[in-house]
Design a protein that fits this description.
118 residues; Alpha-D-Glucose-1,6-Bisphosphate, Chain A, domain 4; 6-stranded antiparallel beta sheet; 3 helices; 37% strand
């Protein structure tokens, strides 16, 4: 749950290079459907946007991932009871990496809350 009632702000945070730079990566460069994510001075990964629905979700596929079916998705939903937005993240990882990835995503979402005021 995010303490946000603005779908425009949340959508910008999860779908634009400047929004993703606030919480997900140090630098984000987008060329239509190909997005470069940079962390630190040396780490960089490219992802392809394979599906997008405005104000709903954005789905990426890491270009260096061997399994073409794997993706990670950032989805926003709305809770009518609390009038807040909910962020749901789906990421395909190996079983032995699941706990580490869960911790990583939790820390990233915590950073999203701090930097974007949610």
């Amino acid at each position: 749950m995010l303490n946000s009632t603005s779908r425009n702000i949340l959508w910008g945070c999860i779908s634009t290079p400047s929004g993703l730079e606030d919480w997900f990566a140090d630098k984000v460069v987008s060329d239509d459907h190909i997005v470069e994510f940079h962390w630190g001075k040396t780490e960089m990964r490219k992802a392809e946007i394979i599906a997008i629905r405005m104000f709903s979700y954005i789905r990426f596929h890491w270009m260096d991932d061997e399994d073409e079916r794997d993706f990670f998705e950032i989805k926003m939903g709305y809770n009518e009871l609390t009038n807040d937005y909910v962020l749901e993240i789906t990421d395909y990882v190996d079983v032995d990496e699941a706990d580490d990835m869960r911790e990583l995503w939790e820390s990233q979402v915590a950073r999203l809350r701090r930097t974007c005021g949610f």
